[in-house]
Amino acid sequence: MIWSEVETWSRGQVEELQLERLKKIVKTVYAGNAAYRKKMDDANLKPEDIQSLSDIQKFPFTTKQDMRDNYPFGMFCVPKKQLLRIHASSGTTGKPTVVGYTKNDLEMWAECVARLAAAGGATEDDIAQICFGYGMFTGALGLHKGLERLGAAIVPSSSGNTQKQLLYMKDFECSLLVATPSYALRIAEVAQEMGLDPKKDLHIKTALLGSELMTEAMRTEMKHVWGEDLQVTQNYGMSELIGPGVSGECLELNGMHINEDHFLCEIIDPKTGEVMPAGEKGELVVTTLTKEGIPLIRYRTRDITRLFYEPCACGRTSARMENMSGRTDDMLKIRGVNIFPSQIEEILLNSEICGPHYEIVVTRKNHSDALDINVEVAADKMTDSFKELAAAEADLKAKLKTTLGIAAPVHLVSANTLQRFEGKAKRIIDKREEDR
Ligand SMILES: [Zn+2]
C-alpha cells in the first residue's frame, strides 16, 4: 500500500517543494541559531544564496562534532518551551548527541515512519511487537508512533528477556516484528531452544528491521529461520536526522525509498567533500527540510551508499538509496587495505557451514595489523570431524583472500558460544589501541 500521494509525485513536483522548503530552513537556521549563523558568516553565505537545489553545495557541512561542541541544546532552533520530546544517542566516546522534537516534528516523524512501514508490508490489521529498546534511543518510539498512525496494534515489549518476548509473540499472535537483524535471529534461536518452530508456532509475517546494516545474506538467513514467505525489509535513519523514517525498502527490495519532501540527500566523496556525479557511491549527506527542533544542514552521516531516481515497480517515484555497504566509521584499515565488515559477513553467511553469529577481532602484532574471524558453525552442521572443520576453515580463508585481498584466519566455533546481542550487534573487536 502507498501511504502518501507524495511518494508518487513527479521529479519536478518533488524538487519544487524541496527548493521552497530548503530556502525556508536555511533562513530559519540563520535567524534562529548562533552556531549556524557563524558558520555561514565565516563562509560568506546568506540565506538568499539558495536559488536552486544545487546551491546547497556551497554550504558547509554539519558533523557529529558540531553537535558535541554545542552540547546539549546549542544546535536547537526553537525555545525549550516548544519542545515536546528529547532523545539522545548513546555516544560510545564522548558526550551523547541530543535531539529535540516540536509538535510538528513528532507529526512529521510518525508520518514518515508510517510510509516506510506501509512500504514494507505493514497494515492496520497487524499486531506489531516492538523489540527495540525503549528509552533515549529513537528506534522504538519512532516505529511505535509510525505503526500506531498506520492503525496497527502495538505490543511495546522492548528488548531483553527473550523468553517473555516469545510468550507475547505466540499468545498474542503477533504478525509484525520490529528488531535489529541480529536480535530477530536471536529471538528465533531462543524459540527453537524452547521447542517452538518460528515458522509454525509463531505468526510473524512481516519484519521491519533497522538500526544496524542488513546484508542480503542476513536476509536469506531471516527467511530460513522465520519462513520463506516472511516479508523482510530494512529501513534507515539516525537519531540526528529524526530517528527511523529517512528511507526504507518496499517489497520490491530494490533500494530504500527516501522521504524526499522532508530530507534532501547528496552523495559526497568522504575524503575531499566534493559532491559525486549522479549515481556514484560515496558518503550520504542529508539536509532536513522541515525539522523545527534541530534542523540539520548538510549533515555528514558517515554511511556509504548511492542514490538512484528511476521509478520503482511498486508505483513509487521517490528516489532510492542503495542498501548501505557500511559506515566510514566501521571501515577497517588492515595493512593499508580498506575493508567493510559487511564484505566479511557476505562471505561467511553465503557458506553452508556458518551460522549467522560471528566476530571480527583486529589486533596489532609486531607492528602489523592482524585480522582473525571467529564464526559459529550452523546448528544443523555441527561435526566432530577435525578434518572437515579444517577444510571448511581453509576454504573460507581462501574466499576472504580472493575478495578482500588480505589473509585472515577463520576459526569455526561451536554453535551458541559467541556473545548474543539484544540491540545493535558488536561484531568488531578492535584491540589495536590496547596492543600499541
Ligand atoms: Zn518501491
Question: Could you characterize what this model shows?
Answer:
- The chain is α/β, with parallel strands linked by helices.
- The protein is built from twelve helices and 21 strands.
- Strands 4-3-5-6-7-8-9-14-13 form a nine-stranded mixed beta sheet, sandwiched between helices. Strands 10-11-12-15 form a four-stranded antiparallel beta sheet. Strands 20-19-18-21 form a four-stranded mixed beta sheet.
- Helix 4 packs across helix 5.
- 43% of the residues are buried.
- The mean pLDDT is 94.
- Bound molecules: zinc ion.
- Residues 250, 252, 257, 312, 314, 316 line the site of zinc ion (ZN).
- Zinc ion is lined by residues 250, 252, 257, 312, 314, 316.
Unique bound compounds:
zinc ion
Radius of gyration: 22 Å
- Report the CATH topology name of the largest domain: Rossmann fold
Q: What kind of assembly state do the chains in view correspond to? A: single chain
Strands ordered across the widest β-sheet: 4-3-5-6-7-8-9-14-13
Q: What is the C-level CATH assignment of the largest domain?
A: Alpha Beta
Number of domains: 2
Largest sheet: 9 strands, mixed
- Strand tally is 21
- Structure annotation, total helices: 12
Strand content: 15-25%
As residue ranges, the low-confidence spans are none
Span of the ends, CA to CA? 54 Å
* Arithmetic mean of pLDDT: 94
CATH superfamily membership of the largest domain, which one? Answer: ANL, N-terminal domain
Structural class designation: alpha/beta
Going by CATH, the architecture of the largest domain would be: 3-Layer(aba) Sandwich
Shape: globular
Portion of residues within helices: 25-40%
